[in-house]
Amino acid sequence: xxxxLFDIDMTLISTGGAGRRxxxxxxxxxxxxxxxxxxISFAGRTDSGILYDALAAIGQPWSEExxxxxxxxxxxxxxxxxxxxxxxxxxxxxxxxxxxxxACTSNVVLGLLTGNWRTGAKLKLQHFGLWDYFKxxxxxxxxxxxxxxxxxxxxxxxxxxxxxxxxxxxFIIGDTPKDVECAKPFGATSVAVATGLYSTQELAExxxxxxxxxxxxxxxxxxxxx
Length: 226
Prior knowledge:
Helices cover 42% and strands 15% of the residues.
């Protein structure tokens, strides 16, 4: 059995900045500041980590209560932002075909490894009709540190299948160096796709096991899982 884990933002879909706008609005409501995210990179980060740094930027300590309140407000704004029509909102090239192919492959389980909180991931993927492809996931709810998420996915794979996944049979697909980095502690196979803010050259510097321009090379990707 193989476990194929996808990042969401800029790998499977683009939301046209809906997530960032929703975070900014929620942060302003709760903490009366527009500036928390001003100098914070979102690429490859977990939502929990982004919020933690934003609070630090305005001199506020993180707490479970603050995160819970933020999540609730953020999800409301995210649903609203996703509902606004924009040509920048899209499923990336090749995504539907590769998910259809893998969903019909008997020895493959499709999952998510994402910096999104689970509810945010569901809102985004349901908007594009992709949520039901995935049987399990590891999310920002599980750890602020993305490098801790592969073992979480492995545990959920065992809970689902009764089989322990070996590192070489776990594949992590994403568009940032952090996606590549998080595969290494577990020994998973990293697959980088240059569909986000990083060029193929920049991604190559992070030394992924495999590198693609995007997910439209269906046969090349499927060969990895055979």
